[in-house]
């Protein structure tokens, strides 16, 4: 018996080693075409593992697509574009560690990311102190506005988004009492605070305010409380796609028939297309994007054919994709010095690309428009209205 | 609207699901004296097997049977290949076995992460018919979960008390040396305990996949949950594991409903400590 087990263990170890070797060989880097100029190195700080990877990976892929295109057409002033990836795991600690590594070990001057508010907020002071330019495609927490002079984002702040959703619920949907179900993370709580404050300022009442931890699998008690609160509408503010799905499964199981309005997790096209019945009817919002725009539709077509999936959070992905072209223009204009680039970014006005029109305000936030959308029974999104934050 | 019926339903579903896993965990602890924390990984593993079988287009019944069988085999294999090594003539290397169990848990969790990715996977809805019980809503699936979990746990208890082999297992649990002297095959008994625990985890994994969503990171949360519950109830006792699960779930859900969901794990932890101070061997534990 024991001998047999030893053999089995030994054999599986050898097999594992062979597989590992084969994989290592397969993923060995292909020889790159030689260019004489030094490459331009950009750090990518994104959640590549954990729940946040559900959007970190698509954003990473969008960056890779733009990198490939730029390098194929001669790079930036003849310099190739190179990425160094760090995993922020959508957590503060990992975000800070990743920023430290990029700035002090890799000597990076430009960081794209993080994707989540938690990792971005943790990395921002480190970047600011080292005068490293950081630009996020998707971190929306209101706190990032004041995170520093070198901190930008091509996404709008939730200070606008939460308020617009609250106004839509109050004025257009005529809702007067709301319940909130939110996850305990920087991003989700930021939205919860803004929504709650705005809805009450308008004259509505928040009759239940329930939260859950990211590791919770059972939200039944929170849902039961909300069901009995008499709310006309539930504002859902999860952090990630897995928790969004969990919420919907358990709301359905308890036959909650209250109108739902959600944060931008619920525009995840891939997620809603897979289970349209689960998400149909949710009203949600995202940065306004024109899907008919030729640059945008070219991006979507190329992404779908290259990765064989629907773009999940299209607005964020387009932000990252366009961001690289923005920097290409910036570097061509003022060179790759972080401080000069920073000053240049503040002058960007109505810059047009796949992400739409881009203007930065004095905090380095994107001034933008929002679209209110509704999930349809066939899993597509219908645009209900387009709103500008005041 | 009356809250209480739904509240009870909300407790019963997770309590019986986790309770069944805790029963297996308890049996292993008693028979082998090792804390089989990797069981949390086995639950998720079984769920992912079901998910894969659906992707491969297998019929439901076949997918479920295959998932449970493979999980049972892996659990048994882990036991005989790894944990059996920490079994010595008169004692058990508890420290090493706990480290090994944790390592296996991490291994399973990260294996699932590597293979299936970090996003959530869900198995299409089945037995989705809703029933109203008073003011509570229950789905067919949830009824199946509660009934099957209770039934299976009951059968384990019956097996331990009414069959010859079950009695032999209890004898090993009480005093392995004496059991060996009267001719009970210790290795066989322990092997059976590993397989039984994995079998229960396999069933729980199926239910978990159907009722919740599968995320690899939940494996360790599951392990802690099961560990707490069986310790609270008194390790080694089938009714203890179920009672521990029920008590912990009640505390968590009541806190979430009437105080704040933020504190539900805190209440649970405080209760475990309080109960253990009052009865160090758990509610149904055997005093030594």
UniProtKB/TrEMBL annotation, chain A:
Query: What CDD domains does the database record attribute to this sequence?
Result: PBP1_ABC_ligand_binding-like
- Asked if the record carries the keyword Transport, the reply is yes
The residues covered by the Leucine-binding protein domain are 39-379
Q: Which residues form a coiled coil?
A: none
Query: Superkingdom of the source?
Result: Bacteria
What UniProt keywords are attached to this protein's entry?
Amino-acid transport, Signal, Transport
Query: Which Gene Ontology terms describe the biological processes this protein takes part in?
Result: amino acid transport
Keyword flag Signal: yes
Q: Which family does it belong to?
A: Belongs to the leucine-binding protein family.
Please report the name of this protein according to its UniProt entry: Leucine-binding protein domain-containing protein
What organism is this sequence from? Candidatus Uhrbacteria bacterium RIFCSPLOWO2_02_FULL_49_11
Lineage runs: Bacteria, Candidatus Uhriibacteriota
From TrEMBL, chain B:
Record-linked CDD domains: TM_PBP1_LivH_like
Q: Which family does it belong to?
A: Belongs to the binding-protein-dependent transport system permease family. LivHM subfamily.
Which coarse location class applies to the principal site listed for this UniProt protein?
Answer: membrane
- Per UniProt, what is the membrane topology? Multi-pass membrane protein
For this protein, the parts annotated as crossing the membrane are 6-28, 35-54, 60-83, 95-116, 136-160, 192-210, 222-248, 255-278
A Gene Ontology biological process noted in the UniProt record is: amino acid transport
Mind telling me which PANTHER family this protein's record contains?
AMINO ACID ABC TRANSPORTER PERMEASE PROTEIN (PTHR11795:SF445), BRANCHED-CHAIN AMINO ACID TRANSPORT SYSTEM PERMEASE PROTEIN LIVH (PTHR11795)
* InterPro entries the UniProt entry points to: ABC_transp_permease, BCAA_transport_permease
Q: Where in the cell is it found?
A: Cell membrane
Give the keywords, sorted: Amino-acid transport, Cell membrane, Membrane, Transmembrane, Transmembrane helix, Transport
Q: Name one GO cellular component term.
A: plasma membrane
Q: From the Swiss-Prot or TrEMBL record, what is one GO molecular function term?
A: transmembrane transporter activity
Q: Under what name is this protein listed?
A: Branched-chain amino acid ABC transporter permease
């Amino acid at each position: 018996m024991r001998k047999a087990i030893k053999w089995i263990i030994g054999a599986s170890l050898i097999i594992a080693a062979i597989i590992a070797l084969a994989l290592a060989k397969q993923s060995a880097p292909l020889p790159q075409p030689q260019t004489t100029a030094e490459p331009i190195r950009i750090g990518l700080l994104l959640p590549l593992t954990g729940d946040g990877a559900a959007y970190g990976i698509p954003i990473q892929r969008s960056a890779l697509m733009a990198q490939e295109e730029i390098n194929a057409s001669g790079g930036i002033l003849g310099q190739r574009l190179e990425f160094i990836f760090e995993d922020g795991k959508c957590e503060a600690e990992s975000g800070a560690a990743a920023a430290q590594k990029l700035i002090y070990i890799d000597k990076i001057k430009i960081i794209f990311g993080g994707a989540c508010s938690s990792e971005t907020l943790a990395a921002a002071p480190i970047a600011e102190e080292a005068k490293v330019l950081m630009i996020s495609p998707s971190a929306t927490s209101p706190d990032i506005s004041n995170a520093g002079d070198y901190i930008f984002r091509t996404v709008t702040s939730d200070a606008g988004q939460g308020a617009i959703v609250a106004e839509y619920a109050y004025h257009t949907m005529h809702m007067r009492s709301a319940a909130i179900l939110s996850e305990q993370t920087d991003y989700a709580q930021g939205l919860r605070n803004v929504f709650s404050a705005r809805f009450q300022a308008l004259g509505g009442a928040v009759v239940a305010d329930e939260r859950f931890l990211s590791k919770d699998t059972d939200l039944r008690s929170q849902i039961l409380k909300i069901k009995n609160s008499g709310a006309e509408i539930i504002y859902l503010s999860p952090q990630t796609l897995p928790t969004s799905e969990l919420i919907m499964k358990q709301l359905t199981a308890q036959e909650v028939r209250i109108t739902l309005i959600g944060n931008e997790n619920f525009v995840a096209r891939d997620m809603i297309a897979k289970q349209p019945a689960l998400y149909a009817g949710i009203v949600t919002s995202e940065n306004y994007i024109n899907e008919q725009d030729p640059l945008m539709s070219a991006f979507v077509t190329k992404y779908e054919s290259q990765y064989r999936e629907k773009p999940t959070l299209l607005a964020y992905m387009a932000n990252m994709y366009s961001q690289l072209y923005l920097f290409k223009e910036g570097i061509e204009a003022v060179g790759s010095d972080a401080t000069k680039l920073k000053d240049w970014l503040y002058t960007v006005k109505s810059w047009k690309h796949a992400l739409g029109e881009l203007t930065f305000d004095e905090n380095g936030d994107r001034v933008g428009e929002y679209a209110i959308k509704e999930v349809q029974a066939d899993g597509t999104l219908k645009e209900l209205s387009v709103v500008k934050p005041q | 609207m009356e809250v209480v019926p739904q509240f009870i339903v909300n407790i019963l579903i997770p309590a019986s699901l986790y309770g069944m896993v805790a029963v297996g965990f308890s049996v292993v602890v008693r028979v082998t004296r090792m804390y089989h924390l990797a069981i949390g990984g086995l639950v998720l593993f079984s769920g992912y097997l079901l998910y894969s079988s659906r992707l491969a287009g297998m019929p439901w019944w076949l997918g479920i049977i295959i998932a449970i069988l493979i999980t049972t085999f892996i659990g048994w294999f882990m036991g005989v290949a790894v944990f059996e090594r920490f079994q010595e003539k008169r004692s058990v290397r508890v420290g090493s076995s706990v480290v090994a169990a944790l390592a296996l848990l991490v291994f399973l969790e990260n294996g699932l992460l590597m293979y299936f990715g970090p996003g959530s996977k869900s198995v299409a809805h089945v037995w989705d018919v809703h029933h109203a019980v008073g003011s509570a809503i229950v789905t067919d699936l949830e009824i199946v979960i509660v009934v099957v979990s209770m039934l299976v746990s009951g059968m384990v208890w019956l097996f331990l008390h009414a069959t010859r082999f079950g009695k032999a297992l209890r004898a090993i649990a009480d005093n392995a040396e004496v059991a060996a002297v009267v001719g009970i095959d210790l290795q066989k008994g322990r092997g059976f305990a590993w397989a039984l625990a994995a079998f229960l985890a396999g069933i729980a994994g199926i239910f978990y996949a159907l009722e919740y969503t599968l995320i690899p990171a939940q494996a360790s949360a599951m392990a802690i949950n099961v560990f707490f519950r069986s310790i609270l109830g008194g390790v080694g006792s089938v009714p203890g594991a179920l009672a521990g699960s029920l008590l912990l779930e009640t505390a968590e859900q009541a806190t979430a409903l009437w105080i704040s969901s933020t504190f539900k794990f805190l209440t649970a932890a405080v209760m475990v400590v309080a109960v253990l101070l009052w009865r160090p061997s758990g509610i149904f534990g055997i005093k030594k």
